[in-house]
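quick one, 342 residues, struct below
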Amino acid sequence: MHARAATAVAAVAALALALTGCGAEVKSAGSEGKAAKGSGHYPVTVENCGQKVTYDKAPQRVVTNDVGIAEIMFALGLEEHMAGYVMPDYKASREDVPWKDGYDKVKWLSKKQINKELVLDAKADMVFAGWNYGFGEGDGFTPAGLKKLGIGSYVLTESCRNGSSAKSRGVMPPLEALYTDMATLGKIFDVEDRAAGLVTDFKKRVADAQAKIPKDGHRPSVFLYDSGQDKPFTSGAYAGPQDIITKAGGTNVMGDLKDTWATVSWESVVDRDPEVILINNYGSPNAEEKKKFLMSYAPLANVKAVKNHRVFVLDYVDLVESPRNPSAIAALADYLKEVRAG
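---
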């Protein structure tokens, strides 16, 4: 996702193979004619952003980067397979989620940027992060670099780079990316039944939210505001807000942007005249400060959302790929229903 959230003792050879991408079709090693070992589940081969890797056993010391990724692991019940998590203190609630115990069970390694030294100190055998969301070419913290240290990598599907360009990301709709990661990690850690159950539950919750959307055909237009005053940082077609907005009955005004998170111009926002502004709440400035800026920024004065004071707030963890996405859809759907009625 963003660049904001910018981890080893040598592992067994199979674990040293790095996963250099995300999004993927899962294939069992048995289907390739390899003899199963141990429990019969391993070895397994998965595909993550186009690169296959085989696991002879589940990683035991995973380090995750950022809140949504940690919660994917917690939701899958994989705390015992984690050496720790890295995330800034986004002040998102950790008390009202089903997997809140994960925060107590797993060590919070750092509130700063993830780096090689940190994951080496944690004796990590796998790092779960994203492109420009933990992994980055600029500082050399990449799956290829970690592979040289004997550390495997799994890249968040939402952040998968599309095509040859390292600047644009995303290869599938955001919810599909979440479901893909759940299924793939279920395969890697031999918790496929739990992963399948979660995906089924998530899909049902999304369907339930959609069932309550009025059938009048009107889909309020929504602009996701993350940050930025000179130019706004927003969500394109492949970041979480795209599906959160559309599944909630709205239209993402930047949905034609074939990227995850990106900077656009205020002129483009004015031209698209959104009926609602959705604020991504984290850190400083907080949601109230962002709202105050938007409401007082002269170029936006005639935008429908500003004129009608239609601003809705979701937390960062709701809007990045995470197990909180279905609840975020339900919350926004309720708000958009009020917008239609108002």
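The longest helix spans residues 192-211.
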